[in-house]
Amino acid sequence: MSVVDSSGQFDVESLDHVRGTLLESLEGHSSGIWLTADEGEPSRVAYCAPEPVANGTWNLLMLGTRKDRMGQGTVGRWSRKLKTNLFVGACDC
Questions:
Q1: What are phi and psi of 44, to 5 degrees?
Q2: Which pTM does this prediction carry?
Q3: Residue 54: exposed, middle, or buried by beta-carbon count in 10 A (0-12, 13-18, 19+)?
Q4: How many CB atoms lie within 10 A of CB 78?
Q5: Which residues, in sequence order, are bridge partners of residue 34?
Q6: CA 93 to chain centre
Q7: Are strands 33-38 and 58-65 parallel, antiparallel or unpaired?
Q8: Ramachandran class of 51: left when φ > 0, alpha when ψ lies in -120 to 50, beta otherwise
Q9: Measured on CA atoms in the order 6, 62, 35, 76, is the torsion positive or negative?
């Protein structure tokens, strides 16, 4: 949650929703996927969930980066890598 908290992208209510979604995942009550990038410490986070009305289709619902890493293009590169590799089962992200 430190990446999400420090990103400045979410208001308090939205942060509560993200926390709840993460807890559901950690407790095994969600089929969503959380991914993080670590560059000595957590620097980026993504959350993907299956599309409920289409088999084998996933939605990339959240991408976040620490505020001090914004503007460096890392999320854009990571996003392309996720879209290209994750959903064919070959992501080394």
A1: -140, 155
A2: 0.71
A3: exposed
A4: 18
A5: 47
A6: 11
A7: unpaired
A8: beta
A9: negative
